[in-house]
Amino acid sequence: MAGPATDPRSAAVAGDPPRRRNTEAALLGFAVLITVVAQAIVDLTITGSLRPEMAGFSAWITALWVVAHLVIRRWAPYADPLLLPAVALLVGLGLTVIHRLDLAAEQVESDITREDAPVQLVWATLGVALFVAFLVFVRDHRTLSRYAYTLALAGLALLALPALLPASMSEVNGAKIWIRVAGFSIQPGEFAKICLIVFFAAYLVDKRDVLALASRRVAGIELPRGRDLGPVLVAWILSILVLVFERDLGSSLLLFGIFVVMLYVATERSSWLLIGVGLFAGGAFLAYQIFGHVRARVDTWLDPFAYQDGAGYQLVQSLFGLGTGGIFGAGLGGGRPDQVPVAKSDFIASAVGEELGLFGLVAVIIVYLILVERGLRTSLVVRDAFGKLLAAGLAFAVAWQVFVVLGGVTGLLPLTGLTTPFLAYGGSSLVANFVLVAVLVRISDAARRPATPHAAPPVRLGDAPTEVVTP
Amino acid sequence: MNAPLRKVAISVLVLFTLLILNVNYIQVVRSDDLRSRTSNTRVLAAQYDRERGAIVVEGTAVAESVPTDGRLKYLRQYPQGELYAAVTGYHSLIYNNSQLERVENDVLAGSDGRLALRRLADMFTGRDPAGGDVVLTLDPAVQEAAMAGLEGVTGAVVALDPDTGAILGMASTPSYDPTLLSSHDPAAIRAYWDELEAAERDPRLNRAIGDNYPPGSLFKVIVAAAALEDGLTPESVVPAPEEFPLPDSSRTIPNFGGSACSPSGEQSLIDALTISCNTAFAALGIELGEDRVREMAEAFGLDGEGFEIPLQVAPSGIGDIVDDAALAQTAIGQRDVRMTPLQAAMIAATVANDGVLMKPYLVDQVQAPDLTVIDSTEPEVWREPISEEVANQLTEMMTSVVAEGSGRAARIAGVQVAGKTGTAQVSDEVADHTWFMGFAPADDPQIAVAVFVANGGGTGGERSAPIARQVIQAYLDGQGG
C-alpha cells in the first residue's frame, strides 16, 4: 500500500498535507479485484464456465474507476481517498448480485429472463460521467448555493411530477413515484433529494441565526418562536403530501429526517430535534389511522408470518433468505435469492445476506458506515458553513436511507420503498447517488486542501464568516 | 456546528450498530427457526438439486431419487408403492417430509454432521454432493407377509428380532403410495393428498407406532409376570369364578362369552392364561395390588413415555387407577390401558429373550454416497423387567396358549409357537380390536411379532393369530428353518 513516503509530491513539498491519491488507487484496485473475482465465482458456480463477456466487463469496470480516479487526481487532488473506493466496492458488488439474479431467472427457466446487469453497467457509466462532469465543471461547491432557490424549485417539481402524471405513466406496484417515458423509468425523487439538500443547506445557513437565537423558554426547554416554525412545518407538510399523493412512505420519511437533522446541525439546538420527533410521531400516528397502506405495512412488520401468503410475503421470503444464509452464506450462486420478489432492487440486501452470509452483509453495512463517516468527517473539517451543512446533509441522507431500507428488509423497521444506494438495480438511484458522491468529493477536496499553497499547517477558521454577534 | 455534527456521527454509528445487531439476530439466533419453517421452500427446493440418499432394505432401495430433465433435478420414488410407506413416509414438495424421510432427513439430504468431511471433499473435487443412504433392519419376506395378512383390514404388524431389538417388519393398513405425494406436479400432489385426507381411516398414520390402543387380554401376560415374580408358579391354583364382582360396584366382570373358566371355580395360572380367563386375572390384579401391577407394566415399557426408533413412538401406559374396580379392569387390559403394536411386540420379545428387552431399532446402518458405512446401530439392552426363570415360565404358559388355548390359529406344523391373544372392547357401537403377540420357535426364539386389527370384530385368536402365523412362517422359511 502506498504511503506518504512513496508519494513523491508529498515528500517533495514540505507542509503540503498528504493527498493519499495512491491509497485511493490501491483501494480502487482492491474493489475491482473483488468485483471481478465475485463475477467469476457467480459464473463458475451457476453455469460452470466463464462467460466470454467477462473480459469486456472487467475492462469496462476497470476503465470506469481509472477515469474517475484520474479526474479526482487532476481536479480534486485533496479529496478524501475512501469515498470513491467505498462506492466502487458497493457498485461492483451490486452489479455482481444483479448478474447473479439474471442467471437465476435462466436457471429456473423463468419466462421472464432479463439481462439487467448490463443495463445497470450502462447506468453506472452514466453515473461516472456525471461524477466526472461535476468535478470538472464545479470547482467550488459554494457556487451551488447561488442556485439554491432554482434547485429548490427543481426539487419540488421533480417530487411533484409523478403525483401529477396519470397513473399509467407514474405508478409501479402501488407507488406513484415514477416518470415512465418511452421505455425509460425514472424515479425523480432520488434527484429531488439532492436538490432539496442543497437548498436546505443554503437556506439554513442563511437563516440559522434567527432560528437558533430567537427563542423562549417553556418548561425548561428553549423553544423557537411560533413564526420560526414555518420552515419545519413546510418540510413536514411536504413529506405528508408525498405520502398522500405518491404513497411513498420511504421518501416521506427520508426527506423529513434529513431536514430535521440539518436544522439541528445548523442551529445547534436540540429543541428542533424534539419538535421534529414530535411532528414525526404525530404524522406517523395520523398516517397509521388514515392510510390503509401504512397500516398494512406496520401490521406486516409486527408479525410478518401472519401475513406470509399476502402482504408479508416479501419480508418473509427475505427473512428466509437471510436465515438460510446464516453466518457464512450459501456462497455466490449457491442460494435461492430469486425467491424474494424484486430481489434486484428493493431486496438486494437480502440476496447479499443469503449468499454472502452474515459476514458479507455486515461488511456491506460497514462499507456504508465508512462512506457516511468520511462524509461527516468532511463536514467537520470543511471551513465554510454552507459546505459543512451540505456535506452533513448528504452524508446523513445516505446513512438514513441505508438504515431505513436495510432495517425494512431485515425486519427491524416497517418496509418502505427506498432503494439501497449504489447496490440496488435502478438507474435513477445509481446516477443520483453518483452525483451525491461527486458533491461530497468536491467538498472533501476543499476541506483537506491547504488554505494557501505551501502555507504552514492550515488555520482552522471555524465558522468565522458567519459568526454572530450576540446582542 | 461541529458539536451537533459529532452527535450526528455518533447517532449514525448507533443506527448502524442496531442494523448489525438485528442482522446477527436474524442470521444467527433465528437462523435454524427460519430454515426449518415448512413455508421456507428454498431449503426443500435445494434438496431437489442434489441426489437424495436412498432408504434401503436388504440391498434394494425402497425410496430413491432418480434424475430428471426438469427444473428439479431429482424425483423421489418408492418402487414398492404401499409396502414400505408406513416406514419411509413421503418427501413432498408441498407437504414436506414424514416418517424416516423426516427424521433421517439430515442424512438423506447430505447435511448430517457425519457426512461433513465428505462434503468438504466434494467441494474440492467438484463432485456433485449427494445424500447418504439409510439401511433398514426390515426383512422383505416379513414385510410382504405382514402386508398380505393385513389386506382388507385396518391394523398393524410389528416383528422384532428378540435377541437384538432389530425391527424385522413394520406394516400398517390402510396404506398409500408415497410416490404420488413426491411427484413434481403440485396439482396431482394436492389431489392425492385430498383423497387421503378424505379417507375414513387415515392411510398416512403408521398404526404400528403412531397411536395406542386398548390391548385387552395381552395385558394378562404382564399380570402373570408380576405374579410369577412374586413366587407363584404356572401350576399355582388361583380363584377363577364365573363372574367377578367389581369392588364397591354393582357391576361384574364376566368371562368371554359368559362361560365359567372351570367347574370348580379355581384353576392353575397356566390354564387361566391358556383360556384367557378374565375373572382369574381380575382377582389376581387386586391380589397383587396397584403398585405391583404398575411396576411390572412400567418395567415392560408401559410407562406413559414415548421413545424413538428413530421414528417417534406413541406412549404406552396403564393410566390412572382410581380404585380396585379400575384395577380389576386394568388387569384384563381394559380401562385406560393403551399400547402400541410395537409395545406388544416388545413384550413378546422380552419373554422370548429370557427377560431382557432390547431397544428396538429400525436403522441398521447409515452409509455415505459411496456406500462406506459411517454409522451402524449396535444392539442395546434396554430393560430387564423379569428374571430368566419367569421368562421361561411365561414361555411355557404362552406355548400352551397356542398349543391348546385361544391362540390355536397361530400353530405352525413342526414349530412351537408361543403367544397370547387379546380382544379389546372399544365401545358398544364399534367392533372390538383384536390382537395377537407371540414368538417362535419357543425353545430358540428367532422372531417376536405383534398383530393388531382395529375394529375388525371377532377375537384375537380368529382375526389376528392367523396373520401372526403367516408372518412367523415367512420369516422362518426365509431363515431356512
From TrEMBL, chain A:
It is found in: Membrane. One of its GO terms (biological process) is regulation of cell shape. Residues 451-471 are annotated as: Disordered. It holds the Pfam family FTSW_RODA_SPOVE. This is Cell division protein FtsW, lipid II flippase. GO terms for cellular component: cell division site; plasma membrane. It is a multi-pass membrane protein. The chain crosses the membrane at residues 25-42, 54-71, 83-101, 121-138, 147-165, 177-205, 249-265, 272-291, 356-373, 385-410, 422-441. It comes from Blastococcus tunisiensis. One of its GO terms (molecular function) is lipid-linked peptidoglycan transporter activity. InterPro entries: FtsW/RodA. Residues 451-460 have a biased composition (Low complexity). Keywords: Cell cycle, Cell division, Cell shape, Membrane, Transmembrane, Transmembrane helix.
TrEMBL record, chain B:
InterPro entries: Beta-lactam/transpept (IPR050515), Beta-lactam/transpept-like (IPR012338), PBP_dimer_sf (IPR036138), PBPA_dimer (IPR054120), PCN-bd_Tpept (IPR001460). It holds the Pfam family PBP_dimer_2. Residues 155-473 form the Penicillin-binding protein transpeptidase domain. GO terms for molecular function: penicillin binding; peptidoglycan L,D-transpeptidase activity. Residues 52-134 form the Penicillin binding protein A dimerisation domain. GO terms for biological process: cell wall organization. One of its GO terms (cellular component) is plasma membrane. PANTHER family: PENICILLIN-BINDING PROTEIN 4B, PEPTIDOGLYCAN D,D-TRANSPEPTIDASE. This is Cell elongation-specific peptidoglycan D,D-transpeptidase. It comes from Blastococcus tunisiensis.
